[in-house]
Every structure is written in structure tokens, then in C-alpha cells.
Amino acid sequence: MTRWPGSSVLFAMSGAPMETEPTPTTPIMDVEAYASQYSGRVKLARLWFVATHAPPGSPLELDALRLAVEAAKQGVDTAMYTQVCRSPVATLHALSVLTT
Question: Helix 88-99 and helix 59-74: axis angle, to 10°?
């Protein structure tokens, strides 16, 4: 999301202007559609980038991290798998899934 200098208009990642200020529940992008364009390590790297650059605690971060964990489990890059699965948000998500 970008605010152009001297402008009050916000632009989402697609470059289209947004009419209102996004809130934590406002979806900025469809992470699943974005991720479906990639495979393998590239998919995992892009999901990890989105997860680590999204606002903390936002639905965007959680969706990207969930998909990154799934992609990491399917791959062979053990270093990236370890990095993704050891992130604090992934740990909290795993605990919430186990306790519900």
C-alpha cells in the first residue's frame, strides 16, 4: 500500500486507488490467488515476503503465513521450512489450532 507524496489517495498492491483508509479487517489482496501463480521455492519466498511485510496481526499476514507453512511442508528447502515454522505468529497459530 502506497500513499503518493502530496496525495491523500492510497494505492493497494495492484496500483488501483482505494476509496477508504484500510482497516485491519479490510482485505488488501487475495493471497491465495496471488500464491497460485507460483510454485516451489518461489511460492514460499513470495508468501514469506508478504507475511513479513504485512501489518502485524492483520488477516493478510495470517493468510500469507498459513499458506507459507503449507508450502514449506510440501517443499525440500529445510532451512526455509525452519524459518517459517519458527516464526512467532506461526507458533501462535499452531497453538490456537491445537486448542480449538
Answer: 90
Secondary structure (3-state) at 86: coil
Dig out the grid coordinates for 4 from the structure.
Answer: 503518493
pTM of the model: 0.63
Alpha-helical segments (H) within 1-100: 31-35, 40-53, 59-74, 78-85, 88-99
Report the distance separating Cα 58 and Cα 43, nearest Å.
Answer: 20
Residues 28, 22 contacting (CB under 8 angstroms): yes
Q: Can you name the residues that pair with 10 across neighbouring β-strands?
A: 3, 18
pLDDT band at 61 (very low <50, low <70, confident <90, very high): confident
